[in-house]
Design goal:
The protein is α+β, with helices and mostly antiparallel strands. It folds into three domains: 79 residues, Alpha-Beta Plaits (2-Layer Sandwich), CATH 3.30.70.20; 76 residues, no CATH class; 37 residues, no CATH class. Helix content is 28%, strand content 17%. The strands form three sheets. It has a two-stranded antiparallel ribbon. The chain has a two-stranded antiparallel ribbon with strand order 2-3. It has a two-stranded antiparallel sheet with strand order 5-6. α2 packs across α3, α2 crosses α5 and α3 packs parallel to α5. The mean pLDDT is 88.
């Protein structure tokens, strides 16, 4: 599902103190710090600037800025962003989601309604860092919290787990969690000892859902 971007951020230069907090929270890496142009009035030598094409209206910067130096402005023409899953090999998309323990059609970014399949398709199409993945799909441009873990998990199982996180000095991102799918035996079954150890959990039912075996779930 494509995300519609109707607004982007704009820096109010005379208010910007160059604290760089906005650069630490932008999920699409749309903000960077530059030297303030000679003669431009302002409280510091540094100035935040926006890459308008990369800004997806996440508004983290707006909420975080302590100096009211950011505002959102309407685009003349709203734009669509997103990766269409059918454009990428479906078996590869499903395999990547399976390796991460996610359903291709399952939403992983509820703010932008981006699915695991869309993220997987974008990875297979060449988006190999968290910010590149956000720019390709629109994922992680809402609350930027819930979808961090599945984003990192998909990148990890695709072989890009060592990709630098955006932003390099940004706020802490917690690591990926273990998933039941990674405990399966060679027959793609939950081992008996695991079922016996956790009798109150429907482990075999859960894994059948993940594997798409809904008749056995």
């Amino acid at each position: 599902m494509a995300r519609i971007v109707r607004q982007i951020a704009e820096i109010i230069a005379e208010h910007c103190t160059g604290c760089a907090l906005c650069t630490y929270t932008c999920p699409t890496a749309a903000i960077r710090m530059v030297e303030r142009p000679d003669g431009q009035p302002g409280p510091s030598r540094k100035l935040a600037v926006i890459d308008e094409v990369a800004c997806y209206n996440a508004q983290n910067c707006l909420e975080l800025c302590p100096d009211d130096a950011i505002r959102m402005v309407d685009l003349d023409e709203p734009r669509l962003v997103g990766t269409e899953v059918p454009d990428v090999d479906q078996e590869q998309v499903a395999a990547l989601c399976m390796a991460a323990g996610l359903l291709p059609d399952g939403r992983v970014c509820f703010c932008s309604e981006v699915t695991a399949g869309e993220l997987a398709a974008a990875i297979l199409a060449g988006a190999h860092t968290p910010d590149a993945l956000s720019r390709a799909t629109g994922g992680r441009t809402g609350c930027t919290e819930i979808c961090v873990e599945p984003t990192l998990k998909l990148l990890e199982v695709a072989g890009h787990g060592d990709a630098p996180k955006n932003p390099p000095r940004g706020f802490q991102w917690y690591g990926t969690t273990g998933r039941l799918v990674h405990q399966l035996n060679e027959n793609l079954q939950v081992p008996d000892e695991l079922v016996e150890a956790y009798p109150t959990y429907p482990l075999r039912k859960d894994i059948n859902v993940v594997l798409g075996n809904l008749e056995e779930a």
